[in-house]
Amino acid sequence: MTQPDNASNDTVGSVHELAVLSRIFPLLPSASAALLGPGDDAAVLAAPDGRFVVTTDMMVHGPDFRFAWSTGHDLGWKAAATNLADVAAMGARPTGLVVAIAATRDTPVSLLEDIASGLRDACAELAPGCGVVGGDMSVSDTFTLAITAFGDLEGRAPVVRSGARVGDVVALCGDAGVAATGLRLLFDRGVDEHGTPDRSLADRLRAEHPDTVGAQLAPRPPISAGVAAALGGATAMLDVSDGLALDARRIAAASGINLDLHSELLGSDPEMALRGGEDHALLATFPANAPVAAGFRVIGAVTEGSGVTLDGEPVEGVLGWDPYAGWNGQAG
Amino acid sequence: MTQPDNASNDTVGSVHELAVLSRIFPLLPSASAALLGPGDDAAVLAAPDGRFVVTTDMMVHGPDFRFAWSTGHDLGWKAAATNLADVAAMGARPTGLVVAIAATRDTPVSLLEDIASGLRDACAELAPGCGVVGGDMSVSDTFTLAITAFGDLEGRAPVVRSGARVGDVVALCGDAGVAATGLRLLFDRGVDEHGTPDRSLADRLRAEHPDTVGAQLAPRPPISAGVAAALGGATAMLDVSDGLALDARRIAAASGINLDLHSELLGSDPEMALRGGEDHALLATFPANAPVAAGFRVIGAVTEGSGVTLDGEPVEGVLGWDPYAGWNGQAG
């Protein structure tokens, strides 16, 4: 039975859906573009441009996150940040999110509150004015969170992957390889002797390596740089989710050109920068005859050919993360 | 290993994500409002009205569907239909869907193809011009499908729940209690001696009772009636997903009135019509001084008070479906 004086013990399976929602709703960020918010069959969002940008992403316990490593706040933050990055990569300003959660019955309601707080804080810091306009809640054996994010192009053309031209410079805004360094630390030292993710080990690791582990668990992609890049004349752009080499190849394939990256511009660990994913930096190409947008740094050039080269040599080997690699969704 | 000549044995876990997507993409319906479709960080959809309607819904294997009862085509159809109904209930014309799927590793790729075909056929029949503009694919221990749907208001005000006025008539377009009759049949006779959903029993049941079981597994909500109701002056409207009594109470609460339903207008089984969910009919209120919109039939009147009455008497008992009721997500 629910104890009104002990709400911290409530779980999704022990209290009524309406009671759960009444605790979560006040925590969610409101969207300045919301003409009609949650509570009806659908929300109504302003699209002053006459178009809107939309992207969706599902995070599944096991392959995408583990509660032994991520707090609820981390999960809400990361879910917002990664979707906002996809909106930003089109050169759009994020306006709203809808959030569907399938929680296990033993999920504490307080964890859902933490997720809502993470969504709120990520929107406030990364995309002020963006908020949650609707959602859905279910129960499941596997904790799953699905976010759909919207953005406004403010009259500009979307910055797509296919616009890079020979002679452009290649530029990056944000980190490359930092989140992957954090993930490697977690897999190496955030697990117990059976390889199971362990909360106390992860907490200690995060205290010792806040930058890298924090970048993995709660990334801070440069959302406002997306609009800046569009205004600055970016010819192509994407969000680096699977690693620089793999995502650069996507621009190369869509544009029919080669991206030559320069190893001396990739920081102290060019290999990790090339192959490590989940930083959600923005990779863009700009005309060479003008400065790149504020916040971007040049890391290479667009050349004739097809694919990705490092100092003129093809990048070999496994480029990025395969979502079908083995995993155990129950562990951690 | 993948056998090119035996694609019917491929599973999500045995072939590369790109190979899966290359088989699904051609089956998905295209959206006439899509200015930029799948393949970039985000899609771009037209919103000529300067606003858009958005709703999201997650379907989880176990509480929301079971593959022993539903084909992939059924699941895709129902996921589209239920989300389109929420858009229609605002008085909007559906323009697009984004679809996120988390599949178990043993899911046949052919099942995903069937889901795509179900999405396509539902859009074509229920909302021509609406299509899939983006998506995401993951692996999970629990098969989960999340849909977000969009609609255009075409210059009209959204039809919300709070606009019903004393003196309006209450009208319904679509079935009430038919899908629940089908679900009752499935739970009574579509399970084996251990209560586990059984495919061959369900198939036989559906052949014997195509209307009711079909309404449960692949509902056909009256999507175009949503725009008709808005044009016809509906003062309030919603999609009946949890049963007439529970959803009527939502209009009553939002509008601060009472909805009095008339039992002789509820068909041969008023109790089932009142309490059975998942038909996704449209329940609306209209001014009494004009005919209700085409397709709607009067089932009651808006009166002073708060709540829902049947022939003037309060409706007692359990009104609708509780998503937190016990279930076994692994069975069937």
Question: How does this model look, in words?
Answer:
Two copies of one chain form a homodimer. With 332 residues, the first copy, chain A, is an alpha+beta fold. The first copy, chain A, folds into three domains: 12-152, 2-Layer Sandwich (60s Ribosomal Protein L30, Chain: A); 161-174 and 221-314, PurM-like C-terminal domain (Phosphoribosyl-aminoimidazole Synthetase, Chain A, domain 2); 181-217, no CATH class. Chain A contains nine helices and 13 strands. Chain A has helices at 17-24, 72-88, 109-126, 178-189, 199-208, 210-217, 224-231, 244-255, 270-275, and strands at 34-36, 43-46, 51-60, 93-103, 131-139, 144-152, 169-173, 236-240, 258-261, 281-286, 297-303, 307-310, 313-314. Chain A has a seven-stranded mixed sheet with strand order 8-10-7-11-9-12-13. In chain A, a hairpin with a 6-residue loop joins strand 1 and strand 2. In chain A, helix 5 (199-208) packs across helix 6 (210-217). The first copy, chain A, is globular and about 60 Å long. Residues 1-5 of chain A have low confidence and may be disordered. At the A-B interface, strand 2, strand 3, helix 2, strand 4 and strand 5 of A face strand 2, strand 3, helix 2, strand 4 and strand 5 of B. Strand 2 (43-46) of chain A pairs antiparallel with strand 3 of chain B.
